[in-house]
């Protein structure tokens, strides 16, 4: 009888392994050094604060998206849900006369409701996540336009505070950090967070092991909706009004930030710190290109190339781990 060779896992060095798992961080550092050399205006306190403010809305959306992608899902509605939550919050203040603090709860509640509806459609209605969230994207954007009649609506002072600066620190950055800590805690310190990774790794195995997969998926999309609502309020606070066309296309930036941060679209991986780095990397790219007076049209091309590289890097990493 001939002996069959057993395929052993390929060993890679610790340095290469670290680079494979922290590619976004390395890319961010290299990019910052390059921009520092290219323009003297990049590494100024004011500009770095501007980068943080620009990253805040996308990062908050992306933290919610991280839960979804970890479970091998997708949520195309977060940008429209953010706009709708902000518009309902502003409408409840300007037209209904609700107290400012209550309009914040209303905005978060609208985000939660939209997320739960998507989650129920996916978990119990058996709709593909792509279709369910695409439908919610259209519904939320249409409802935003109907409610506002296409015009901005002033927001409450409690919402405007989220876009202000206190003691020299922009509040949007503080909200981004808070949202990141919540995302990190849920993913790494709770049972439901570990269940998300299990579902993303193998949904059928998770179900057979006794996990309530359907209920967890509803919670996942509900969390995505809450984070979208918070992002909408932060964005509205910066403008002091809810805009009917706010956050158009932001869902793509949120997905990009999560993927650039090291999460796999196949599910089972992803972390809050990686998502934060991905969102900051996107903001740094846009900021650097603006400082160098690069056309916004070319900026879209550059961002697209970065996303393609990130996904390609994820494919190579997965093949290396399986080899």
From TrEMBL:
Compartments (UniProt record): Cell membrane
InterPro entries documented for this protein: ABC_transp_permease
One term under GO cellular component: plasma membrane
Transmembrane annotation, as ranges: 21-43, 49-69, 76-94, 100-120, 127-147, 167-187, 216-235, 247-266, 297-316
Keyword Protein transport tagged: no
Topological type in the membrane: Multi-pass membrane protein
One MF term in the entry's GO annotations: transmembrane transporter activity
Domain of life, source organism: Bacteria
Main location: membrane
Protein name: Sugar ABC transporter permease
Organism this protein belongs to: Corynebacterium aquilae DSM 44791
């Amino acid at each position: 009888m001939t002996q069959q060779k057993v395929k052993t896992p390929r060993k890679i060095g610790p340095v290469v392994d670290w680079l494979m798992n922290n590619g976004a961080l390395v890319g961010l550092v290299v990019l910052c050094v390059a921009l520092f050399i290219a323009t003297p205006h990049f590494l100024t306190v004011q500009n770095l604060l501007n980068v943080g403010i620009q990253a805040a809305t996308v990062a908050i959306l992306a933290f919610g998206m991280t839960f979804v992608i970890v479970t091998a899902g997708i949520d195309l509605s977060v940008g429209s849900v953010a706009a709708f939550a902000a518009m309902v919050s502003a409408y409840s203040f300007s037209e209904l006369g609700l107290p400012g603090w209550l309009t914040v709860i209303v905005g978060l509640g609208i985000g939660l409701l939209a997320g739960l509806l998507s989650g129920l459609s996916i978990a119990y209605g058996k709709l593909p996540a792509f279709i369910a969230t695409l439908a919610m994207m259209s519904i939320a954007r249409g409802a935003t336009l109907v409610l506002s009649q296409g015009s901005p609506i002033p927001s409450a002072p409690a919402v405007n505070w989220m876009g202000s600066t206190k003691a020299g620190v922009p509040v949007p950055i503080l909200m981004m950090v808070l949202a990141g800590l919540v995302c990190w805690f849920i993913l790494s310190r709770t049972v439901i967070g570990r269940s998300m990774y299990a579902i993303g790794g193998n949904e059928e195995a998770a179900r057979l092991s006794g996990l309530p997969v359907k209920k967890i998926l509803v919670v996942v999309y509900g969390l995505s909706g809450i984070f979208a609502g918070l992002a909408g309020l932060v964005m509205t606070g910066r403008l002091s009004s809810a805009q009917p066309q706010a956050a158009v296309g932001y869902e793509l930036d949120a997905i990009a930030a999560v993927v650039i941060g090291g999460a796999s679209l196949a599910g089972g991986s992803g972390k809050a710190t990686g998502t934060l780095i991905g969102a900051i990397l996107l903001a740094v790219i846009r900021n650097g290109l603006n400082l160098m007076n690069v056309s916004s049209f070319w900026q879209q091309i550059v961002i697209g190339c970065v996303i393609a590289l990130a996904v390609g890097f994820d494919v190579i990493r997965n093949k290396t781990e399986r080899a």
